[in-house]
Specification:
- There is one protein chain.
- By secondary structure, the protein is an alpha+beta fold.
- The chain has twelve helices and 17 strands.
- The protein has a seven-stranded antiparallel beta sheet. A six-stranded mixed beta sheet has the order 1-2-3-4-12-11, sandwiched between helices.
- Helix 1 links the parallel strand 2 and strand 3.
- The chain is globular, with a radius of gyration of 20 Å.
- The chain starts with a strand and ends with a strand.
- The model has no long low-confidence stretch (mean pLDDT 95).
Length: 395
């Protein structure tokens, strides 16, 4: 860990100057308490740095949570080995089954609700009632088709994978969040915070660092809808995982996929926590909570390892750790820099949909995940290292 200032601590050995300056600007905000923590995967974000932990007193920055509220990972350990899965035949039909079971890509959603999705929609309706009578009405006005989005993946760095650990045990692994409904909720409240900043002539180091003050109606509405969106993201991953598990069971000619372990964790979220004897709002934008002994998931990128970890409860990091490898090339720059042949080479031995659409997700566009994990050695300990057998992504 490197102390960059009294209000900025850094665990990233790979940190470009622009990202550092962005984090330094964020750390100057008067309600940051005690300091911003930069994770090993830190890279430039919108307003606040991706891979940062922001503890705040009496205020929240909607853009510091991010527009994919509740984005995160879920993993399930099965009793089958990689050899057993391969012995059932080519993995291409399994990939195809997964691609048909889960709507992929931006803007794609379900045509109708499955039985399990309907039960989860009912749970989300109850959650909205618990959070306030206006929450469901507001969410529905923001995204009328939100229920049909449940169980859909999205695009970009979201993925579904069949993987195997160091003991050859097969894990199902996927990455997604609150989809279009969460994005619209986030954009709405970011705009409210920015409008308030303009009306009150607040001096901001970046317009995307506009905040909402605790105790105001705007703050309360944001927290209620944020909590709903975080729960949507959690259940969205659960719904997709159930479908992927059913696909694997069909491949294995079994009635179901037995689950030996399931981990579901956000890495774009805010919650109330106590640190250094003070109750704070802790926003993790591209970071997971890593209390001592807490299970977590840190994905690499296409073609690289991912990790099942256990938190070490590091107090200076606000009990946090990285959420992945972290980009070093923008999507546009990656497309200009790398070739399809390089992508094919990086995915050698993995069943995937061969397409130029994924060129901006090539592993070389990200930090070396092994360096990230070395930087995180005082934040988490590695329980399992996962290698990919099947990769599914949306265009």
């Amino acid at each position: 860990m490197e102390r960059l200032s009294d209000r900025l601590m850094n665990w990233a050995s790979i940190l470009d100057d622009e990202t550092r300056r962005q984090a330094e600007r964020t750390a100057t905000l008067p309600f940051i308490d005690p300091h911003v923590a930069l994770m090993p995967d830190a890279h430039l974000g919108k307003g606040a740095t991706v891979g940062s932990v922001l503890p705040t007193r009496g205020a929240i920055i909607p853009a510091a949570v991010g527009v994919d509220i509740g984005c995160g990972m879920i993993a399930v350990r099965t009793p089958w080995s990689a050899d057993e899965v391969r012995s059932r035949g080519s993995l291409a039909p399994l990939r195809g089954d997964i691609e048909r079971a889960v709507p992929l890509s931006a803007g794609k959603y379900n045509k109708k609700l499955t039985g399990s999705a309907r039960r989860r929609v009912t749970e989300l309706e109850a959650k909205a009632d618990e959070l306030g009578e206006k929450v469901l009405r507001s969410v529905t006005a923001t995204a009328p088709n939100w229920a049909l989005q449940l169980g859909s993946l999205g695009s970009g760095n979201h993925f579904i994978e069949v993987t195997a650990d160091e003991q050859d045990r097969v894990w199902l692994f996927l990455h997604s969040g609150s989809r279009g409904v969460g994005n619209k909720i986030a954009q709405k409240h970011i705009a409210i915070a920015q409008q308030r900043a303009r009306e009150e002539n607040l001096e901001l180091p970046d317009r995307d660092l506009a905040w909402l003050d605790e105790g105001t109606p705007e703050f309360d509405r944001y927290i209620a809808e944020l909590r709903w969106a975080q729960h949507f993201a959690l259940l969205n991953r659960e719904e997709m995982m159930d479908r992927v598990a059913a696909c694997l069971a069909a491949h294995m000619r079994a009635d179901e996929t037995p689950e030996l372990e399931r981990i579901n964790a956000h890495h774009n979220f805010t919650q109330r926590e106590r640190h250094f004897g003070v109750d704070l709002w802790v926003s993790r934008k591209g970071a997971i909570q890593a209390k001592r002994g807490q299970a977590g998931l840190i994905p690499g990128s296409m073609g690289t390892a991912s990790y099942v970890v256990s938190g070490l409860g590091n107090p200076e990091s606000l009990e946090s750790s990285p959420h992945g490898a972290g980009r070093v090339f923008s999507r546009t720059k990656a497309r200009r820099t790398f070739t399809r042949a390089q992508l094919e080479e990086s995915m050698r031995g993995i069943e995937w949909r061969h397409s130029d659409a994924f060129l901006d997700e090539i592993p070389a566009a990200y930090k070396d995940v092994d360096v990230v994990m070395r930087d995180a050695k005082d934040l988490v300990e590695v329980r399992h290292t996962l290698r990919q057998l099947v990769n599914v992504k949306g265009d």
